[in-house]
Amino acid sequence: MAAKGLNVMVAISVVVTAPIGVDACRYLDALLEQAGSDPFEVLVIDGSSSIASPLPDGVRHVAAPGQGIQALIARGVREASFDWILVTEDHCRPLPGMIDAYRRAVRDNPQADLFSGAAENLTSTSPWSFAVFLLGLGDQWPPQGFHRASTSNANMLVRRNAVHADENAKDGGLLNLTVPRLTDAGHHMHCRDAVVDHILNLSPAGAFAFQFGCSSSATAVSRAIAEERPLAMQLLRDLADLGYTPLRLLSERAPHVRGSLPYRLGMMARLAALGFTSALAICSVDLKRVFRREVREGLRTAS
Q1: Neighbours of 186 (CB within 10 A)
Q2: Which of 17, 90, 192, 198 meets the CB 3.0–4.6 Å disulfide criterion with 72?
Q3: What is the pTM of this model?
Q4: CA 146 to chain centre
Q5: What local confidence, expressed as pLDDT, does residue 80 receive?
Q6: CA distance 245 to 276
Q7: How far apart are CA 96 and CA 40, in angstroms?
Q8: Is residue 82 helix, strand or coil?
Q9: How close are the terminal C-alpha atoms of the chain, in Å?
Q10: Radius of gyration of the chain (CA)
């Protein structure tokens, strides 16, 4: 095990998930500028079916047409060449010093296998984008503070050999299996100085669609991996969450919103509406599970 503080080499593979194609990856040059002297590569995991646009030197294109975001992450983990894998998204701009901050954290904490970075929303111009950011990444926003499970695919660094192959083989395995295991084992640390700017400019309709899609896809993945509750119990919890989730978001996030009173009241309304949307998306996933179960039972009865 490396001693703390030694200037050991930290080789990093950056996995950029690009579900709608290479053209959405606007911050590759900003990543390459931070490469430094240690081994470094950038991989764009392209989930689109379009012909890829030319990429900067030093960026590797990996075609994965039709794959969802969790499958793109898993593919990136398999394709990565180096000891450490940084997972981020096509719309995340690395702020200056991000890669150096991660390398310092690795050198100073040789016992850690997982680092969660920070997220800001500095340049999105839409208040709806900020509401989506607060809902999804509030735990990685420095003013909100970091919590035990503050890890997302917007900005996380994981040791390659700490990801078990059987975990990565499952859709969503990195976030739903590897991350909790490493966190429970005490191998997870926060790296507040490694920051991305989460840049989305969403209309109100776009914000609702984005939140519904993120919540439903994440829930479908976690339901497939986690131990199932009885469906009746899960649906009752889902119904309770339709009221509880907006209230929880208001109590946790709203106190950190700054600005004029009308802006803060508007942001509270946005958070409540998007919280309800998220809870509704989760409920829809579980209702579909009930429907599929009823269909399977009906087919078995008919046969």
Answers
A1: 10
A2: 17
A3: 0.89
A4: 15
A5: 97
A6: 7
A7: 16
A8: coil
A9: 60
A10: 20
